[in-house]
């Protein structure tokens, strides 16, 4: 019996363990940190052996195959040792993909993944399809393959998940954009990150579909190089030659070989240019899956949006507070600032992933009148922004950041938490950061 070792005991790892056990493998799960209580109970109740707060080397290196959590970099010595021994190292997505014949719609991109994935899931579910939501969002793909029998999966895939996928294939692949992110994981080499994102198209056949943003210079260059063999569909803000979906005369237009779909742009639930792209990409996929036009219209107009992504929290004394904690890179913050119609007090900071703040410099100068730096080490932010904005203050906690931002705001302003950075210096994750922001705003 083949032994499968799972490294990492979060949702992805525990889901993989459940599926591996269901498929008759000998399973062992190992995590360098502490496991959440709910996962320990789950593993124990299923008699799946595990360890936490450290790895037993000989146990791990006796594996026939290793399923690695996306959070573990390849540079970790244990992974290097396993590779040297010739042990196959795969991702949870690769593993789960072996055991389902469902249609897989996969979404990646530096920004907009979660919104597009959630919107597309909403479109399919509202149309009555038997569909699961997974990948970088919700319950793990592996757990769902073990416990459910969905006909469709909508999967959000990060570059880390794509890194260890080899035979997996997306029936419909959506690539929203590529901008610098996670460069600390890619030896500060942008091309390595680009290559990871482009893996979304691997193994596709002429029957499959690849949807991407026609105006993204990085993606269009890669597409020209790689010449994907799947059917190609593109989306763009404006009508242009060979663009499948766009906005024109206050309408959105989706062209597929079967038909043309139109809808008034004002009826879209999601506002802002970046959300237009997310809506266009989702609508192309929905059309390819033969969802009826009236269902697409209804879902695009009644979608509720994603928590921690440009989420309106409250208005206090005429000051609007917006939670965009999910903006963990500079390009995300650029989109947030672009959508602002008022003067802004901007909360930035956290764990820098090799950010280049030049991308938002002009928008900060024109829209932001005060900056609050929230982080353990704000030196890089100070070095870039000092002297460019009149008011800059530091905060060491979310309570302090909200209080200072409030005191710096005037009626009619917006306080925007759009940090550009990962959250691990002061918070558990971006959700925790956003939840704390909402808590302190409501305390004002």
Automatic annotation (TrEMBL):
<comment type="function">
    <text>Cell wall formation. Catalyzes the addition of glutamate to the nucleotide precursor UDP-N-acetylmuramoyl-L-alanine (UMA).</text>
</comment>
<dbReference type="InterPro" id="IPR036615">
    <property type="entry name" value="Mur_ligase_C_dom_sf"/>
</dbReference>
<keyword id="KW-0961">Cell wall biogenesis/degradation</keyword>
<keyword id="KW-0131">Cell cycle</keyword>
<feature type="binding site">
    <location>
        <begin position="109"/>
        <end position="115"/>
    </location>
    <ligand>
        <name>ATP</name>
    </ligand>
</feature>
<protein>
    <recommendedName>
        <fullName>UDP-N-acetylmuramoylalanine--D-glutamate ligase</fullName>
        <ecNumber>6.3.2.9</ecNumber>
    </recommendedName>
</protein>
<dbReference type="InterPro" id="IPR004101">
    <property type="entry name" value="Mur_ligase_C"/>
</dbReference>
<keyword id="KW-0963">Cytoplasm</keyword>
<dbReference type="GO" id="GO:0008360">
    <property type="term" value="P:regulation of cell shape"/>
</dbReference>
<dbReference type="Pfam" id="PF21799">
    <property type="entry name" value="MurD-like_N"/>
</dbReference>
<dbReference type="Pfam" id="PF02875">
    <property type="entry name" value="Mur_ligase_C"/>
</dbReference>
<feature type="domain" description="Mur ligase C-terminal">
    <location>
        <begin position="308"/>
        <end position="420"/>
    </location>
</feature>
<dbReference type="InterPro" id="IPR036565">
    <property type="entry name" value="Mur-like_cat_sf"/>
</dbReference>
<feature type="domain" description="Mur ligase central">
    <location>
        <begin position="107"/>
        <end position="286"/>
    </location>
</feature>
<dbReference type="GO" id="GO:0051301">
    <property type="term" value="P:cell division"/>
</dbReference>
<keyword id="KW-0132">Cell division</keyword>
<keyword id="KW-0067">ATP-binding</keyword>
<keyword id="KW-0436">Ligase</keyword>
<dbReference type="GO" id="GO:0005524">
    <property type="term" value="F:ATP binding"/>
</dbReference>
<dbReference type="GO" id="GO:0005737">
    <property type="term" value="C:cytoplasm"/>
</dbReference>
<dbReference type="InterPro" id="IPR013221">
    <property type="entry name" value="Mur_ligase_cen"/>
</dbReference>
<dbReference type="Pfam" id="PF08245">
    <property type="entry name" value="Mur_ligase_M"/>
</dbReference>
<dbReference type="InterPro" id="IPR005762">
    <property type="entry name" value="MurD"/>
</dbReference>
<dbReference type="GO" id="GO:0008764">
    <property type="term" value="F:UDP-N-acetylmuramoylalanine-D-glutamate ligase activity"/>
</dbReference>
<dbReference type="GO" id="GO:0009252">
    <property type="term" value="P:peptidoglycan biosynthetic process"/>
</dbReference>
<comment type="similarity">
    <text>Belongs to the MurCDEF family.</text>
</comment>
<keyword id="KW-0573">Peptidoglycan synthesis</keyword>
<dbReference type="GO" id="GO:0071555">
    <property type="term" value="P:cell wall organization"/>
</dbReference>
<comment type="pathway">
    <text>Cell wall biogenesis; peptidoglycan biosynthesis.</text>
</comment>
<keyword id="KW-0133">Cell shape</keyword>
<keyword id="KW-0547">Nucleotide-binding</keyword>
């Amino acid at each position: 019996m083949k032994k499968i070792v799972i490294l990492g005991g979060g949702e992805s790892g525990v889901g993989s363990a459940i599926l591996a056990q269901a498929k008759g493998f000998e399973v062992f799960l190992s995590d360098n940190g502490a496991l959440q209580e709910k996962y320990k109970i789950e593993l124990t109740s299923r008699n799946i052996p595990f360890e936490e707060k450290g790895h037993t080397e000989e146990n791990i290196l006796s594996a026939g195959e290793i399923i690695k959590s996306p959070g573990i970099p390849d540079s970790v010595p244990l992974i290097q040792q396993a590779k040297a021994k010739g042990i196959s190292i795969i991702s949870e997505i690769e593993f789960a993909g072996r055991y389902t014949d469902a249609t897989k719609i996969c979404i990646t991109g530096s920004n907009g993944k979660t919104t597009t994935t959630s919107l597309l899931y909403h479109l399919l579910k509202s149309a009555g399809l038997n569909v699961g939501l997974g990948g970088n969002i919700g319950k793990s793909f592996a757990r769902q393959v073990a416990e459910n029998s969905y006909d469709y999966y909508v999967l959000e895939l990060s570059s880390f998940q794509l890194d260890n996928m080899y035979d997996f294939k997306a029936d419909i692949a959506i690539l929203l954009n590529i901008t610098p992110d996670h460069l600390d994981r890619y030896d500060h080499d942008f091309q390595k990150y680009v290559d990871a994102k482009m893996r979304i198209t691997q193994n596709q056949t002429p029957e499959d579909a690849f949807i991407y943003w026609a105006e993204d210079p990085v993606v269009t260059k890669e597409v020209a190089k790689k010449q994907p063999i799947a059917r190609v569909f593109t989306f763009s803000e404006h009508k242009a030659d060979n663009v499948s979906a766009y906005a024109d005369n206050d309408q959105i237009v989706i062209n597929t070989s079967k038909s043309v779909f139109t809808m008034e742009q004002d009826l879209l639930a999601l506002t802002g240019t970046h959300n237009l792209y997310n809506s266009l990409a989702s609508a192309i996929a929905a059309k390819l899956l033969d969802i009826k036009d009236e269902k697409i219209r209804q879902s695009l107009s009644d979608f509720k949006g994603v928590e921690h992504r440009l989420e309106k929290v409250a208005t206090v004394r005429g000051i609007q507070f917006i939670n965009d904690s999910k903006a963990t890179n500079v390009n995300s913050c650029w989109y947030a600032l672009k959508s602002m119609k008022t003067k802004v007090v901007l909360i930035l900071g956290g764990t820098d992933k090799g950010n280049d703040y030049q991308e938002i410099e002009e928008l900060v100068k024109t829209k932001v009148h005060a900056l609050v730096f929230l982080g353990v080490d704000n030196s890089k932010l100070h070095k870039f922004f000092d002297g460019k904005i009149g008011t800059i203050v530091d905060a060491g906690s979310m309570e302090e950041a909200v209080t200072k931002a409030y005191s710096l705001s005037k009626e009619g302003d917006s306080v925007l938490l759009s940090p550009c950075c990962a959250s691990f210096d002061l918070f558990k994750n971006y959700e925790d950061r956003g939840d704390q922001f909402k808590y302190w705003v409501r305390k004002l």
